Amino acid sequence: MMPTPPPLQPAPAPTSPAPTDSPRTAAWFPRAVRRLACRIGASGLFLRAAARWLPVCDLAAYRLTGGRWLPSRLILPTVLLTTTGRRTGRPRAVPVCAHPLPGGGWLVAATNFGRPHHPAWSTNLLHHAHAHLTWNHCRHPVTARLLGPEEQRTVWPRLLALLPVYGDYAARADHREVRVFHLDPGVR
Hints:
By secondary structure, this protein is of the alpha+beta class.
């Protein structure tokens, strides 16, 4: 049995966080589509079905199309995040909503549709910070950095402006802190 590495500690907050509502994000995820996604995303029926079936459907479509299509990307800024399994050490791919930053990198919030536990991919990132993000048909190596409380308080309103349903998800998961990661592109 492999020893468990120490968890990733929050990094100090940068002096000025990059804005998340960049022209690249706005073009990729128009305001009208955002409103529709939030209305659907907060409904009880969606929450019961989507948390279980949306990632499965996305991965199936991704594999069937040879990596050319993620259905969720029609509505949300979705990427494929491949982490290393905490216990198994194997690659684990999952579609996640990621917000591109103007200076490079992405923000991802581990809301898990407001369910009571953290998503497995976020726990994997705490143990193995190096991952791969597939976006625009390109696979990018990234290093995950858990945002500290102060930096998360700064970034959270911007994430809510992009996707207000995050507020509903955070309220449903009120007993746990929603983890927010900055995925920094770079060579491993």
